[in-house]
Amino acid sequence: QVQLVESGGGLVQAGGSLRLSCGASGSILVISVMGWYRQAPGKQRELVATIMRGGSINYADSVKGRFSISRENAKNTVYLQMNSLKPEDTAVYYCNARIVSTQGLRDYWGQGTPVTVSS
């Protein structure tokens, strides 16, 4: 059984910073892409950033220059450093990973961690 567990969300003032972490555990053989998505109240879930196993990175335009994604392959962990936070960054942030496990290939999601940015 593969699990993704996130941590690091919380309440922060505009202009502040937070760092999210997401660790994958279970019968993992390899993780190709890891990423972060977010869903604000009343809106659809959207991509924030993704990072390939080899290091290739993609950011949503709305977070470029403010957020930074990184990963530690040996720890099956992905991070999201969020700086210069804005009220519009308020959302539940979800970790995603495409994992080959002993049960095959599929996408996994974390339970979500809320981020609230006050103005």
Mean pLDDT: 97
The helix/strand order is EEEEEEEEEEE
* DSSP E strands, number: 11
Give the CA-CA distance, first to last residue. Answer: 41 Å
Structural class: mainly beta
Radius of gyration: 14 Å
Helix content: under 10%
Key words describing this protein structure:
7-stranded mixed beta sheet, elongated, 62% strand, mainly beta, 0% helix
Give a short synopsis of this structure.
The protein has 119 residues and is mainly beta. Helices cover 0% and strands 62% of the residues. The chain contains no helices and 11 strands.
How would you describe this protein?
The chain is mainly beta and 119 residues long. The protein is built from no helices and 11 strands. The protein has strands at residues 3-7, 10-13, 18-25, 28-39, 46-52, 57-59, 67-72, 77-82, 91-101, 104-109, 113-118. The chain is elongated, with a radius of gyration of 14 Å.
